[in-house]
Structures are given as structure tokens and as C-alpha cells.
Write a structure and sequence with these properties.
The protein is mainly alpha-helical. Helix content is 75%, strand content 0%. The protein has helices spanning 2-5, 13-34, 37-51.
């Protein structure tokens, strides 16, 4: 029963590779969404309103 008592102590190299690929794919999709015209315009509007706010 040595296999049953063995504990998982972390990710293997292939799991790190898949995690890295997934993170890069998510970043690419997020970049495309943020740089799209509608989202970019909305972000500029929000930032402009925040900078023009009276305190």
C-alpha cells in the first residue's frame, strides 16, 4: 500500500505548462476585449469623469 500513502506535494512540469498556457490565453483574450472600441471608449469615459470630478 505504498502508493495509497503517497501524498501529492505539488504540480508536475506538465501541469505548470498547461497552467502557463491557460494564463497566456486568458491574458490574450482580456487584451483583445480591453482594446476593442466599445470597451476602450467606456474606459476612457470613466477615467475622464474621475479626473474631472470636483472634490
Amino acid at each position: 500500500m505504498p502508493a495509497a500513502s503517497r501524498r501529492d506535494r505539488g504540480m508536475t512540469t506538465s501541469e505548470y505548462a498547461m497552467g502557463t498556457i491557460a494564463a497566456c490565453a486568458f491574458a490574450a483574450v482580456l487584451y483583445k476585449v480591453i482594446t476593442s472600441g466599445a470597451v476602450s471608449g467606456a474606459l476612457e469615459s470613466v477615467i475622464g469623469k474621475a479626473l474631472d470630478a470636483q472634490f
